[in-house]
Write a structure and sequence with these properties.
mainly alpha, 18 helices
Length: 468
């Protein structure tokens, strides 16, 4: 009897696998390739915010401590240096004092170096992440969009071609070589290629692009001239129309770590414009129905929600305005995108805009979840609480923590009281952040394991009941 069951399980698995493969085959290659790009963009967001959330926060704390220590040492040097010199002139035996004094001076120099080294390293890392993103994006579209490879000029020798076993290998080498050469050019040339050769309508704000070029030039001078301003750097600023106001002076060091948060926002702004331009030209207008929903699901889960969680409201608004106005998407996403747009404006404390967005939507026959969202966004919490009672399954405990929609609602007494009445427990917001200790993180991991065991146990009971 067991063997029969085993054979049936194997058969079910095979049929399920074949169905999955068939579903994947039905999704156009263009959609699969665009999903790859979505994940490249998502990765850049994660990298930038990893720097912002962990490295930059830690860096600023350490730099403040270093600065305080340096000032203390400088005060000591000013006070005691003359005393030491006087002792030397009177032939005191101060060998040990001199050695310790030398040790302090060296430590002072190391600390002073660190004050510039750490912020400069972060700028280099940030621009490098963008460069990797740009190169990966370019390769993705040139390799996968028909006809784009004709826009690149590269030469392969007979000897190089002879080493390849397939045209696919030769094509990839051809594209990689071209991209490698292009990446050695200036960032202005990179975007020039996108506009002139690929005919991308980037529509980048002039001020944003100048800030981006300034950031890349700063990275260049850090790497190639030890962060010392030279004529080449100043010439580049003039060439790109970047205002200086004597902030950057030849022979002087670049001001370290100035407004690092703005540097991150600048990189993400340019990446978002690039994401939208590529989507508009190559993917969104080519996909409808199931394919469009597949893309919408990926964008919403891996981009929009992440950006809202990170409180990158301006980026979210720019991206959603593009998606709502310039792309074909599944009809349900007309609500989803507009609700998320309203969340972004609520995050910016622009309630007037929130009301304007909500009033444009027809909630007459839509899913109750959207009506729920409507009352939350309009701060009509009494009505929102009635919808909470419709959603009493365990997974909603997770949604209240995860979805940025509830960020403000969960702080109210009416939410907490309704939650306690529905689930029989107090609401506890679970969020891993930089201030959490390892002990708190371990506690959450234990809770997750407990939930997994509970879910498996409940699933096992269901299976037994079905078999019975």
């Amino acid at each position: 009897m067991g063997n029969v069951k085993d054979k049936k399980v194997v058969k079910d698995i095979k049929e399920s696998s074949e169905k999955d493969e068939k579903d994947q085959e039905e999704i156009p290659v263009e959609v699969k390739n665009y999903k790859k790009y979505i994940f490249l963009y998502d990765k850049l967001i994660i990298q930038c915010n990893a720097i912002k959330r962990y490295v930059d926060t830690s860096m600023q704390k350490n730099l403040h401590e270093l600065f305080a220590s340096i000032k203390k040492m400088e005060t000591f040097f000013e006070k005691d240096f003359k005393t030491i010199k006087d002792m030397e002139s009177k032939e005191y035996n101060i060998v040990q004092i001199n050695e310790k004094h030398k040790m302090l001076l060296n430590r002072h120099r190391e600390m002073a170096e660190t004050l510039t080294f750490i912020p400069n390293s972060m700028i280099v890392t940030l621009v490098s992440h963008f460069d990797n993103f740009f190169a990966s994006v370019l390769k993705n579209i040139i390799m996968n969009v028909e006809g784009l490879i004709k826009n690149i000029n590269n030469k392969l020798s007979y000897h190089e071609l002879h080493n390849f076993t397939s045209m696919k290998e030769a094509k990839e080498f051809y594209v990689d070589t071209f991209i490698s050469d292009l990446m050695r050019e200036s960032h202005n040339e990179h975007f020039k290629f996108l506009k002139e050769k690929l005919k991308l309508d980037l529509n980048i704000n002039e001020s944003d692009f100048k800030n981006f070029l300034l950031l890349t030039q700063i990275r260049h001078i850090i790497v190639h001239n030890n962060a010392i301003v030279n004529r080449s750097f100043l010439h580049s600023l003039k060439k790109y129309g970047i205002k200086n106001d004597d902030e950057y002076v030849e022979g002087k060091e670049i001001p370290a770590g100035k407004d690092f948060d703005s540097s991150i926002k600048c990189i993400l702004k340019i990446a978002t414009v690039l994401f939208a331009a590529i989507g508009k030209k190559y993917y969104f207008n080519e996909s409808e129905g199931k394919d469009s929903k597949s893309i919408d699901d990926t964008i919403n889960e891996h981009l929009i929600i992440d950006l809202l969680k990170l409180e990158e409201y301006d980026l979210t608004i720019n991206l959603l305005n593009y998606l709502i106005n310039n792309s074909k998407h599944d009809s349900s996403y007309n609500f989803t995108y507009n609700i998320n747009l309203a969340i972004a404006y609520k995050g910016k404390k622009d309630q007037k805009k929130v009301v304007e967005i909500i009033n444009k939507l027809d909630f007459t026959s839509c899913d109750n979840r959207y009506k729920f969202a409507k009352f939350v966004l309009l701060d009509e919490y009494e009505k929102a609480a009635t919808f909470m009672k419709l959603y009493n399954s365990g997974e909603w405990k997770f949604y209240y923590c995860k979805w940025p929609l509830f960020k403000w609602f969960i702080e109210t007494d009416i939410f907490k009281n309704t939650y306690q009445a529905i689930f029989g427990e107090d609401f506890v917001k679970q969020q891993i952040n930089i201030d959490m200790s390892q002990k708190e993180i371990d506690k959450i991991m234990k809770q997750i394991n407990k939930e997994i065991k509970k879910a498996k146990k409940e699933d096992s009971k269901k299976t037994i009941n079905m078999a019975g």
